[in-house]
Design a protein that fits this description.
- The structure holds two protein chains of two kinds.
- By secondary structure, chain A is an alpha/beta fold.
- Chain A has helices at about 10-30, 55-65, 85-95, 110-115, 135-145, 165-175, 205-210, 235-240, 245, 270-275, 280-300, 305-310, 315-319, and strands at about 45-50, 70-75, 100-105, 120-125, 155-160, 180-185, 200, 215, 255.
- Chain A has two domains: about 10-130 and about 285-310, Rossmann fold (3-Layer(aba) Sandwich), CATH 3.40.50.1370; about 135-280, Aspartate/ornithine carbamoyltransferase (Rossmann fold).
- Chain A contains 13 helices and nine strands.
- In chain A, the strands form two sheets. In chain A, strands 7-6-5-8-9 form a five-stranded parallel β-sheet. In chain A, strands 2-1-3-4 form a four-stranded parallel β-sheet, with helices on both faces.
- In chain A, helix 6 links the parallel strand 5 (about 155-160) and strand 6.
- The longest helix of chain A is centred in the last third of the chain and has 20 residues, at about 280-300.
- Chain A is globular.
- By secondary structure, chain B is α/β, with parallel strands linked by helices.
- Chain B folds into two domains: about 5-55 and about 370-425, Urease, subunit C, domain 1, CATH 2.30.40.10; about 55-355, Metal-dependent hydrolases (TIM Barrel), CATH 3.20.20.
- Chain B contains 13 helices and 19 strands.
- In chain B, strands 1, 2, 3, 4, 5, 16, 17, 18 and 19 form a nine-stranded mixed β-sheet that branches. In chain B, strands 9-10-13-14-15 form a five-stranded parallel β-sheet.
- In chain B, helix 4 crosses helix 7 and helix 7 (about 205-225) runs parallel beside helix 8.
- The longest helix of chain B is centred in the middle third of the chain and has 18 residues, at about 205-225.
- The two termini of chain B are about 30 Å apart.
- The chains are: A alpha/beta, B alpha/beta.
- The interface of A and B includes residues 168, 191, 192 and 193 of A.
C-alpha cells in the first residue's frame, strides 16, 4: 500500500491488517511515554483545505508519537488564498522533501488528483461527501475492541448518509468485515442509487433499533434545511434522533457511536452521548492509534515492527 | 469564362448525398469543382487512393472561446483543428466574453474567421448576455447572417421568455437551439446522477433535468410553430420524446455529440475533470439510445460541442473544474470506430445534414459535382491511429480520448478550392 485513499479500494485483508497493527499502537499510546522512534526522519504534512480540529490534531498526535516531523500547511493564511492551484501547492510542499501528505478537501477526489502529481504517500483525511477512511478504520477498531469481531453484527447508520463521507467509508468497512448494515434516513438524505449499496434501507428508526448491535448516528448539518431536504431540525429529531425514549428500544448491550462533533439535542440526546453504552470517547482515543498504524504502514515500510516499536523503558527495566 | 484546373483529387471513392461511386475530382482555380469522372488530370495531384472523398464536414456546435478566453482557444486555432478534423464549416457558440449577443461581437467573430482555414460562422445568443431575461437583437443579428440562436452553456429557464423567443424567431425564419438543462433540478450537479455520482460522492444532476426542458420546449414548439433544434441530446428519455414530436409533425431537429455515444459516467471514476461535461456523460443505456437514435434518424446530426479549456482549468478538483472537452479533431474517427453504420450515413451525419440545419448548405455538404464549391474532405476510413492531445491543433489539451486507438483519419481538407490540410498537416 502506498497511499490510503478510500476503504472501497481495500480488501478485507488490508483492513484487518491495519486493525491488527493498531493493537501495537494502542499499547504504545497507553505507555507513560507514548512515543516510539518508528518514523524518525520522516516528515508528515497536513494539508487541510477544510476546517477540522479533531482529525488534524489526531493525525499530528499520531505522527509525533511515531517521532515523525510534522508540518501544518494552513490554507487560510497561505498562498492558496492568493490563488495558487492545488497542483502547485502540492508540488511546492513536495519539493521541501516531505514523505506524506494528509489531505482534507471539500471536493471529492482531490486525494486521487494529488497522487498523480506527487510521489509522497497521500492519506485521505476526508474528501467532500466521498470517503473518510481513517474514521471508518477507527470505528471498526472500536467495535472490534468492544465486541471481538464485526462478523454477523447488525449496525444501523442513521441520518444524512447522502452528504456523509463517514457513512460511505463505514458502509464499505463494516460490510467488508462481515457486518450487516441498515441505513436509516428519510429518502431525501439517502444517496442516489442506494439499491446498489450492500445495505438495507429503512425509514423507521423505531423498527430497526431493537435488532441492532450498534447504532451509528451521523451529524445533521443545519444547512440541509435550506435545501428543502428536511422541514425542520425538530421534525428530524422527532423521527430520526436518538432520544432518551427511543434509546429504550435498544438492547442492553447495544453500542452507540458518533463521529463527532455532536449536535446534542438534534441527532443524539445529550444524556445518551454520555451514557455507558456510548463509545464516542473511545472512538476519538482509538483514532490516534489507528492513524499511527496507517502512517507506519505507509512510511515505515521495510522496518521491523519490533525495532520500530521498542518496548517501553519501564518494561525494559522491570524485565 | 470557365475556371482553369488547379489540382485533381485522384483515386478516391466519392460519397455524398447522391450516393457512392469511384472517380477523380478536378478543382479549379476559382475554388469550384470543374470536373468529376474517371481518369482525370490536372497540373497537380492530391492522392486519394484508398480514401473516401466527401463534402467537407460541418460542426454546428463549436466553442471557439474568442473573444474573452484566448488562452484556451482562438477562432484561428479552433478553425485549424476543425480543418484537420475534416470540417470546412463550423458554427461558433455564443458563450464568449462578452457573449455573442450584439452586432459588434458577431462582426468581430466573423472578421476573425475570414483568414481562418475553415468557414467560420456564428450563432447568436437568444438573450442579452445569455442571462435569460431579455431578448437579444435577433433581427439585427439575422441581418448579419446569423441563422441559429442559442444561449448554449445554459438553457433559457423562463417559460414565457422562451415562448416569446420562439414566436419572434418564427417571424425571422431563424432556428432556435436549446441547451436543455433545468437549472433548479440540476441543483449544481457536476455529473450524471446515478450509481457513479453516488459512489464517488459527487453531486449529480438527473437525466430528468434535461428531459424536463425537452418536454417543455416540445410543448412550446407546438404552441408557436417555431423551428427548434435540440443541442447535445444525451438521454434515452429525451430521444424518445423527440422521436414522438417529429412523428407528430413538429419542425424539430436534434444533434448528439461524439462523447455521448462513446463515454459513460463510469469514466468519471478517476476524478479526472477531463471527463466533466454538460450535459454529463450518462449510462450505458443512454449511450445505446443515442447510437440507436443516430442510426434510425431521430438524431439529425453529429456535433462536437468542442469545448477547449486550459490545463490549469482542467486540473482543478472535479466539482470546481469547468465542463467541456475537445471534439473537432476526433469526431470522424470516433464515428467510424464506434458507429455501426454505412459510410454514407456517417458522412451525412457529419456533413449535409448539419449544413441544412444552419443553412450552410449553400456552400457545404453539397454533392460532389461540377459547379459546386470545392469544400471537400478526403479521409482514409481504415487508417488506425492513437489519439494524443499534445499532437492537436487546439490550444487546449482536454481530450478525454488520450491514448485511445481509433480508425479513420483525415488526409486532406479542401476549403473553397484550397488544400488547407495536406496529408494530415495544416498548410496555414
Amino acid at each position: 500500500m502506498s497511499d490510503l485513499l478510500s476503504i472501497s479500494d481495500l480488501e478485507r485483508a488490508d483492513v484487518e491488517q491495519l486493525l491488527d497493527l493498531t493493537d501495537h499502537f494502542v499499547e504504545v499510546s497507553a505507555r507513560p511515554i507514548p512515543k516510539v522512534p518508528a518514523l524518525r526522519g520522516k516528515t508528515v504534512v497536513s494539508l487541510f483545505y477544510e476546517d477540522s480540529t479533531r482529525t488534524r490534531l489526531s493525525f499530528e498526535t499520531a505522527a509525533k508519537r511515531l517521532s515523525a516531523d510534522t508540518m501544518n500547511f494552513s490554507v487560510s493564511t497561505s498562498s492558496v488564498k492568493k490563488g495558487e492551484s492545488l497542483r502547485d501547492t502540492a508540488l511546492t510542499i513536495e519539493a521541501m522533501g516531505i514523505d506524506c501528505i494528509v489531505v482534507r478537501h471539500k471536493s471529492a477526489g482531490v486525494p486521487w488528483q494529488l497522487t498523480r502529481w506527487v510521489d509522497a504517500a497521500v492519506v485521505n483525511a476526508g474528501d467532500g461527501w466521498h470517503e473518510h477512511p481513517t474514521q471508518a478504520l477507527l470505528d471498526c477498531y472500536t467495535l472490534r475492541q468492544k465486541r471481538g469481531s464485526l462478523d454477523g453484527m447488525h449496525i444501523a447508520i442513521v441520518g444524512d448518509v447522502k452528504h456523509s463521507r463517514v457513512a460511505r467509508s463505514d458502509i464499505a468497512a463494516f460490510t467488508k468485515l462481515g457486518a450487516e448494515v441498515t441505513v436509516v434516513a428519510p429518502p431525501t438524505l439517502l444517496p442516489p442509487a442506494i439499491e446498489t449499496y450492500p445495505v438495507k434501507v429503512s425509514h423507521d428508526l423505531d423498527a430497526v433499533l431493537p435488532s441492532v448491535d450498534a447504532v451509528y448516528l451521523l451529524r445533521m448539518q443545519r444547512e440541509r434545511m435550506t435545501e428543502a431536504l428536511l422541514p425542520s431540525l425538530r421534525e428530524y429529531t422527532s423521527t430520526y434522533g436518538l432520544t432518551v425514549a427511543r434509546a429504550e428500544l435498544l438492547r442492553d448491550d447495544a453500542t452507540v457511536m458518533h463521529p463527532g462533533p455532536m449536535n446534542r439535542g438534534v441527532e443524539i440526546d445529550g444524556d445518551i452521548a454520555d451514557f455507558d453504552r456510548s463509545v464516542i470517547v473511545d472512538q476519538v482515543r482509538n483514532g490516534v492509534s489507528v492513524r499511527m498504524a496507517v502512517l507506519f504502514l505507509l512510511l515505515g515500510s521495510g522496518s521491523d515492527l519490533h525495532n520500530a516499536i521498542p518496548a517501553s523503558e519501564s518494561e525494559e527495566r522491570s524485565a | 469564362m470557365s475556371a482553369a484546373p488547379a489540382f485533381v483529387v485522384k483515386g478516391g471513392r466519392l460519397v455524398d448525398a447522391t450516393g457512392v461511386r469511384s472517380g477523380d475530382v478536378v478543382v479549379g482555380d476559382d475554388g469550384s469543382i470543374v470536373a468529376v469522372g474517371p481518369d482525370l488530370s490536372a497540373p497537380e495531384t492530391l492522392d486519394a487512393a484508398g480514401c473516401v472523398v466527401s463534402p467537407g464536414f460541418v460542426d454546428i456546435h463549436s466553442h471557439l472561446r474568442e473573444p474573452g478566453k484566448e488562452e484556451a482557444e482562438t477562432v484561428e486555432t479552433g478553425a485549424r483543428g476543425a480543418a484537420v478534423g475534416g470540417y470546412t464549416c463550423i458554427l461558433a457558440m455564443p458563450n464568449t466574453t462578452p457573449a455573442i449577443d450584439s452586432a459588434s461581437v458577431v462582426r468581430e467573430v466573423l472578421d476573425l474567421g475570414r483568414s481562418a482555414p475553415c468557414d467560420v460562422r456564428t450563432s447568436g445568443a437568444i438573450t442579452v448576455g445569455r442571462a435569460g431575461s431579455q431578448l437579444a437583437p435577433m433581427a439585427e443579428l439575422a441581418g448579419l447572417g446569423v441563422t441559429l440562436f442559442t444561449d448554449d452553456g445554459a438553457g433559457v429557464q423562463d417559460n414565457l421568455l422562451m415562448r416569446r423567443a420562439m414566436e419572434y424567431a418564427a417571424g425571422l425564419g431563424v432556428t432556435l437551439a436549446q441547451h436543455c438543462e433545468d437549472d433548479a433540478l440540476c441543483g449544481g450537479g457536476h455529473m450524471h446522477e446515478g450509481e457513479w455520482s453516488s459512489r464517488l460522492g459527487i453531486a449529480g444532476q438527473p437525466a430528468e433535468a434535461e428531459e424536463l426542458m425537452v418536454m417543455r420546449d416540445i410543448a412550446l414548439a407546438r404552441l408557436t410553430g417555431a423551428k427548434l433544434h435540440f443541442q447535445h441530446m444525451s438521454t434515452a428519455g429525451s430521444l424518445a420524446m423527440i422521436a414522438g414530436a417529429k412523428a407528430a409533425g413538429l419542425d424539430i431537429t436534434c444533434e448528439s455529440t461524439t462523447h455521448h455515444f462513446t463515454l459513460t459516467h463510469a469514466n468519471c471514476a478517476t476524478y479526472d475533470p477531463v471527463f466533466k461535461v454538460n450535459p454529463p456523460l450518462r449510462t450505458d443505456e443512454d449511450v445505446a439510445a443515442v447510437k440507436a437514435g443516430i442510426g434510425n434518424g431521430t438524431v439529425d446530426c453529429i456535433a462536437t460541442d468542442h469545448a477547449p479549456h486550459t490545463p490549469d482549468d482542467k486540473i482543478q478538483p472535479f466539482d470546481e473544474a469547468p465542463p467541456g472537452m475537445l471534439g473537432l479533431e476526433t469526431a470522424l474517427a470516433l464515428a467510424l470506430t464506434e458507429l455501426d453504420l454505412e459510410i454514407e450515413q456517417i458522412v451525412g451525419l457529419l456533413s449535409w445534414k448539419p449544413a441544412a440545419i444552419i443553412g450552410a448548405d449553400d456552400r457545404h455538404g453539397r454533392p460532389i459535382a461540377e459547379g459546386n464549391p470545392a469544400n471537400l474532405c478526403v479521409f482514409d476510413p481504415d487508417e488506425e491511429w492513437t489519439i494524443d492531445g499534445a499532437a492537436m491543433q487546439s490550444k487546449s489539451r482536454n481530450t478525454p480520448y488520450a491514448g485511445r486507438r481509433v480508425r479513420g483519419r483525415v488526409r486532406h481538407t479542401i476549403l473553397e478550392g484550397e488544400a488547407v490540410v495536406r496529408n494530415g498537416e495544416p498548410t496555414r
